[in-house]
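Hey,

Quick one before I head out. I ran the complex with oxa(dethia)-CoA overnight. Inputs first:
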Amino acid sequence: MYARLIGTGSCLPGNPVSNDDLAARGIETNDEWIVSRTGIRTRHLAAPGMTSSELGLVAAQRALEMAGLAPSDLDLIIVATSTPDFIFPSTACLIQGKLGNKGAAAFDVQAVCSGFTYALGIAEKFIKSGSHKKALVIGAEVFSRILDWNDRGTCVLFGDGAGAVVLEASDKPGILATAMHADGSQNGILNVPGQVCGGQVTGDPFLRMDGQAVFKFAVRVLADIAEEVCETAGLKTADVDWLIPHQANIRIIEATGKKLGIDREKVIVTVDRHGNTSAASVPLALDEAVRDGRIKKGQRVLVEGVGGGFTWGAALFEF
Ligand code: UT7
């Protein structure tokens, strides 16, 4: 029994915002710095009031349409997000309500930029166990809400968006291998160290990052976990048709591909147009490459994420 991907969808809010647009808004930065350090040229930013559940809903509807399923067919809904609409109920329950599904299990996963790969691995285990048959897995974020727009070292890096996939139980492959890891001792290098307490925000409600520490950690674990899932599936990295790494920085993506010996042409890149959309980055890139015809039926796709926690996760599947 496999968990097979039968639909993808995504949603980006509003028009692209360029690096020059950010500079024009008063951020002390420039296009040359951002492009040379990160590869990011534009990102999408949600209008005030637009939420992760709204973006996730549209991505979900598009994925369901491609899968040819109705919301009532689903028995599992998992949303990966670090920017939920509320403390509770979960964004998964909010999307379930908007879709009109009743009865499916619905919950959020909090693994920051690895969230989608964690959620995919969890959904695969539910399906493989035989307990659930049709799952919706969403990565949805409005990271612009947790950015300190006075911190030029972080605010230029992120964007908003959502991506989704529909999985179903099948005797045809399917997800071949998944892996998830964390190292909580590294919680200090990327975090939002605030909380709601007694009716007020205490601590710091903005994203903080040690960029260079994150960079080194990311390249190491993204290469390691790609090799791990290939080995679990009895394959070599050369057998992978498409690599979709977390879209944080073109230099991290290129260094990972190089370490794995995977050609540049086999790596899907959206960071130039989306920035880092955290849990949404991988399903956004996947949907783009499925819809533009690059990813074809039967090809092997390796997706991987890395982010705050520190967490990292990957899945290798035959499309
Ligand atoms: O999901 C994981 C998310 N995180 C990441 O992927 C981040 C990984 N890290 C990185 O991508 C890089 O570390 C950054 C792109 C964040 C930073 O690049 P860096 O080469 O490590 O630069 P830096 O932080 O050491 O800063 C170098 C200089 C500093 O100026 P001085 O002190 O040398 O005069 C910064 O103040 O660049 C300056 N700087 C900027 N200049 C223009 C920092 N941010 C900006 C900016 N525009 N936006």
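The pocket of oxa(dethia)-CoA is lined by residues 29, 33-34, 37-38, 113, 152-153, 156, 209, 211-212, 214-215, 218, 246, 248-249, 252, 276, 307 (CB under 6 Å).

Talk tomorrow,
K.
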